[in-house]
């Protein structure tokens, strides 16, 4: 499976793809509504608020094929003659011809949110365009100005100048959307113009790995190429989502589409309108998922929250006293159900606000207050993990085997610094080998990683690591919490104190 942004110049393969152009949202009542007799009245009212968006940009032509014939080949002269006849040969070789360019176009959808011509669409619809035009429902075409955009949420805001008031729609509350409710999508699939499709809300809170704030609504309303940026309506005719992506083996609708919820999009649009860009809250932490093993090792009965793997120096979190190893359970009164929930909560919180934060530290809950800062692009939290290339095991004099973890570890010395490309000031305990049949290998521990802490205690020697493991075993613990410096930065691991032999399974 691969992921691809929609580009009409790009041929879609038959491989399963996630393509950014379509999907859904919803609204809620106390009880589920019955099936409507018809969508006709609502469609008639809403169609004039949806626009077609056309973009164009200059792109360089390919300058011939990516192969050459060897000197002296009988095809060499024939190939050179062909290239010269097509303006890509001799003159080009002498630098006389500049690379040719052509104008590429793309189509998408959008919707009007104000009578004076503000229009919402997807960022990927207008990304890279040097010309944007909008075609209204009455076929009038107007040039559009880009007010601002946000790649993280795939939202863009345009503006057209018109002498008349335009019909517009209002935002709905996507947080009230319920799975199973009816939804209607309008857009410009395949450049056909205003097209209405209907379906239900299939799922909520989908993470399709498109950005740090993924929280998509899934729908089975038919969405296709060109629907990108179009609205998903609830049965009140309010916009609860921006159709953005589909899941498909062919690039066509198979009934699995995704929409950016209005709860995210409306706030981003308002900030772009006021500041020209989104402004987000910043906490200043690097976080990771609280797995079942990590929850067990820190004494949490449930595996929820976001574990602090690192704290940005002089950031809001450090100033408030948040420490590496804390688990953030609640932020501004909102429960952090999962690690990915925290960035969205923080981003949506007012900059400068004093926020109450509930932590889990040393086996108990702790409340602190944080004065939230503003997120800059370079300050974004790093929640990723990159595998480090495994090195061939080499026995060293200071090496020791920890059978319970399936690890070989050693005190850092000059030989190990050179072997694992460690910096001159690296100290501590380095993992020199990992049993491929161990839980540690399964969790992602790699040779060259540096063990910094064991059971919340700093370790700098092999002996200290061994003592921490034995102490955890003596206490009857199933797992031990370790802070390990990986190629992607420091991360916590809840390592099972038992060797796993997968070959026996």
Automatic annotation (TrEMBL):
Active site per the UniProt annotation: 124, 154, 228
Gene3D superfamilies the UniProt entry points to: 2.30.42.10, 2.30.42.60, 2.40.10.120
List of residues binding substrate: 124, 154, 226-228
Subcellular localization(s) per the UniProt record: Periplasm
Protein species of origin: Thalassospira mesophila
GO MF entry, a single one: serine-type endopeptidase activity
Keywords: Hydrolase, Periplasm, Protease, Repeat, Serine protease, Signal, Stress response
Region (Disordered): 379-398
Signal peptide span: 1-29
Pfam families, per the entry: PDZ_2 (PF13180), PDZ_6 (PF17820), Trypsin_2 (PF13365)
Similarity remark: Belongs to the peptidase S1C family.
Enzyme Commission numbers on file: 3.4.21.107
Protein name: Probable periplasmic serine endoprotease DegP-like
